[in-house]
Amino acid sequence: MGDLILNINLKESVKFKKPVIETYSGKIKKLKNKTFSGPLMKIDIDCNDNYNNIYSEELSNIKNIILSNGNSKISKYKYIFDEKNFIDLIQYTYDKKNLYFTSKDAKMHQIDDVLSIDEIYYKPNNGKANFFYTDTKKQNIEVKTFNMCAFSSMSLVYDNNKLIIIYKLLNRQFLDRMKIQKFKLNNKSEEDISKEMYVLENEIGHSNQDYYNIEPEPILYIVFKSDKIYGKLYFNYDGMEIKSNSNIQLINLLGKKYYRNLAIENKYINILNINFGDKFKENIFMYKENKALDSSINYLLQNKFVIYTEDKKRVFTSSSMNFSIDYNINWFEINGDIKFNNKTYKLAELLDLKAKNTRFIEINNSVLILPKFINDQKKYLNKDCKKVAIPKRKIGEVMELADEMKIGNINNLHELIHYVDIKNNLPKKFLQKLRDYQIKGIEWLKYLYINGFGGCLADDMGLGKTIQAIGFLSDKEFDANNSITFIVVPKTLLSNWKKEINRFNKSLHVEIYYGSSRVEILKNINMHKGIFLTTYGTVLNDINNLLNISIDCLILDEVQYIKILSQKLIMQ
């Protein structure tokens, strides 16, 4: 386990005009030049790691400061700090010898001491300017190097392993000029030059009547292209939209001057990266298909994003949704109210609207994104009745849907006949031939039939699937001789099925629907009901005639053949 290292990045701090702290893990060595040497690993301070140089309580306090309100996380290991939080972190950590400063030479220098002063001053020396500050012992200390950056209320200077916090704003350009050129008064008083050492607030874009410092509004345009979703990010400064990757720093709009707030912009970029998709080109973000689009959009809206489609239609998610599911004789009916733009719509009404993209519902020049599990129900919309009715056989899907909709109870579901309430009504002689698990299988088939469901009996080979099917057909409540049942089997099993039916229940009327005899059978099928054995090939040939028959029960043996049958039907 390495040591926790906190680094002040000069270049990034100058860029964002706010302190930028980086979090690393590495081995801190005691070197004479007090620069860091060795490999560094970027770390997320929010992870549950421990470090050799910090106690758990100290680590907890450091985390609380770094993750507190006012700071912005712009990458896994990089944070833009509120100035007060920055001072708190410096005061808490510098004596632990894990605080560093990356200077102009790109080296990480350990900070031995932190000083807070009110100002620096200069003294002319042989035509050059030397700069000094007064420390706590009233000593005059010369500043040798100006590794510095200015913020809204203070300046940072790193010099000789000391971090100097000056509660005035230093004019970096002026100081650099003074150090490079020979020092001359140029007919200016020393007082005038002293003033030029410090930058006026309006020069860095803070609270001056000639300059305005406003928070940018993030604007995301959603674009559909080649079955992919992209987001183009802009920032709105008082009506002027700027690309997120633009090099513009100063905005002059209708006589007002704005400095871009890059720290806030990066906070929004980070939110977009995590909750919509990764930035992959300039100001374009690719949507992560594994995330729910409505949830991602909703999160962005909650975080002050304004979202449009490419043709400038405002995108919303529903402000509230209330759903219920009713169980009826042959279907489950979904009812719901969805509130959008202060107006309430019925679910069926929304699903019936035509949208350019199935993810979006266009209403009055705005766009509503429905949850995916709701949008998927379009296929069940009964346009005549204005109802969303899901067939009863889809009970599994309905239960999943109820869970996603957070519906605790389905109305009238008690009318569904439960498996535990199913009792067999088999002839005694037949019942005596069955094993317990076969009886349960027959009762399960009866449960499916009574409730109008389909099912797959998939016992292992030799456990009696055929006898369980014959058992269901023998149940007196089903009354097979007064119903029409088709059993579809491979051609080689036609005779075997008829033999097995006659063996276990001779009272059942069974015919083979195959060959030339099937024409006569088809003519009289409604008068001579019963069980009809046929093949997959015959079904394929006679599909149009068979579709006109009201079949009460359909049993498929060796059901994998249905794939071949389906493919042939599609080709016809």
TrEMBL record:
Residues 446-572 form the Helicase ATP-binding domain. SUPFAM superfamilies: P-loop containing nucleoside triphosphate hydrolases. Coiled coil: none annotated. This is SNF2-related protein.
